[in-house]
Specification:
single chain; mainly alpha; two-stranded antiparallel sheet; 5 helices; about 55% helix; globular
Length: about 100
């Protein structure tokens, strides 16, 4: 997949892609993507902070984080191999598209 050419977007096409992403990712998934900032040592610490701040059930956030990982938008370690949660290259692209003009 490293040889895949970049996405070329025609004028105005970024709004079409943004609408598609907004429809494909739910509010919790977008919240998780926007909250990843490199300060959290683990997925659990990130999700616990979001849960407290946004009053969302931790179980719901964990399910949505797993979906984001399966989509290749985020990466994180396991209990046996702990790693900080991070956005992947594709996750960074999706987040940059979502934040084109900052509104939803």
């Amino acid at each position: 997949m490293g040889d895949v050419p970049p996405i070329l977007v025609s004028p105005g096409g970024d709004e079409v892609i943004k609408k598609l992403i907004l429809r494909a990712l739910n509010e919790n998934q977008r919240l998780i993507l926007r909250s990843i900032n490199g300060r959290h040592r683990s997925l659990n610490s990130l999700l616990e902070e979001i849960s407290r701040r946004e009053k969302r059930p931790i179980s719901t956030l964990k399910l949505n984080a797993r979906i984001l990982k399966e989509l290749g938008l985020i990466d994180y370690g396991t209990k046996d191999n702990p790693r900080p949660v991070r956005l992947t290259e594709h996750g960074l692209l999706v987040l940059s598209i979502l934040e084109v003009d900052g509104d939803e």
